[in-house]
Description:
By secondary structure, this protein is an alpha/beta fold.
Amino acid sequence: xxxxxxxxxxxxxxxxxxxxxxxxxxxxxxxxxxxxxxxxxxxxxxxxxxxxxxxxxxxxxxxxxxxxxxxxxxxxxxxxxxxxxxxxxxxxxxxxxxxxxxxxxxxxxxxxxxxxxxxxxxxxxxxxxxxxxxxxxxxxxxxxxxxxxxxxxxxxxxxxxxxxxxxxxxxxxxxxxxxxxxxxxxxxxxxxxxxxxxxxxxxxxxxxxxxxxxxxxxxxxxxxxxxxxxxxxxxxxxxxxxxxxxxxxxxxxxxxxxxxxxxxxxxxxxxxxxxxxxxxxxxxxxxxxxxxxxxxxxxxxxxxxxxxxxxxxxxxxxxxxxxxxxxxxxxxxxxxxxxxxxxxxxxxxxxxxxxxxxxxxxxxxxxxxxxxxxxxxxxxxxxxxxxxxxxxxxxxxxxxxxxxxxxxxxxxxxxxxxxxxxxxxxxxxxxxxxxxxxxxxxxxxxxxxxxxxxxxxxxxxxxxxx
Length: 466
Ligand code: NAI
């Protein structure tokens, strides 16, 4: 194994490329194998980045239509979808090229092709029907996830699409039905609603964003309904069939059993993602899966084979790019004999709609279930001067702190720029801070962040501005 790599990372998404860079920083001879044409994984190519680009562009379109209400007179505002798509593609290209540059800069070998495991120290990489074997002392599997479909429904990326297809419609669908009221459904639903589609979201549960703090979920539902998105909660889709370039969707109410049939132009299936482990040869070399089909790892991200690790969407936990990145860094440090770790209590979740939704730590419902006594501090953006001036007053900040120690247990926000405000809370949780710590920290005026300080003051029932 003298010419073996110290580490070969399979997958060049946020988990994989970050892991490879950290490995190289630590002095390992590292390679990163990627089968897609460009680096960056789902996140950069067909996920976070193109969706945020479209969310931003569509938000600007909506704002431009209302310019005259703020004293800016323009001609008729018209949509140029193909230009928007070009801008989105450009953002993707710039960022994926950026990752390639970073690998080069850090002297990580970028191997193009589809990898599978030959043994616990050998990887076969297949490209254009030719195969090459690479030796590796350590292997990190970071192959991400793929969209899930529903029984009997075929994603063709034309009429019935996954998030990938929904990022590239070449015209605005008149009617769009989305199955699933989670992250993807709500973000893509917002994009196409803003661009002119009639959007209906069919969700199996009686609420949107499964696992979210219920108060936030209810407020979010109210706001999105006001924006014109139609929700069919408590409903299960039983069939979606393409007939003459339209899709006929059948769904049934879970409680009343009432059946509905609707015709639509496009259907987006957004009911979750599954780990992407097919073709890796995991079974053959005895790598075990957990009950959810994810690769089973111990606290050190080690699979059932001691020099093979797994991170990101292929293992348990939220399927989030930043979670995968943290795991990538931790595993590199663990391979180097350091004590890399991930604090799962401090991983934020953000939905980039308008307003944004952000949370970190435990929900009120989880605290109740775990019998943990807590105090609540809440502050509405309606009372935040910056939000008032900019007329973005929807939503609130909710802080949950331990009743006895005042330690912050969870924070949930809906409102302007909360996706950025949440960083303060992740840091607070990482440092074991109390709500009093936040309340006594000076926050610049006038900023949205003052709503966080006021919510912290409210935990002790002493807000100044409400
Ligand atoms: P999700 O897990 O967020 O939501 C799926 C929703 O579909 C759930 O509410 C579920 O109850 C519902 N559902 C499941 N089966 C159904 C059925 N048969 N009929 C109706 N509803 C059904 O999954 P989503 O939105 O597909 O996202 C996949 C992953 O991608 C998530 O884990 C998310 O973390 C990640 N993601 C993160 C983003 C972000 O960080 N902003 C953006 C987009 C995706």
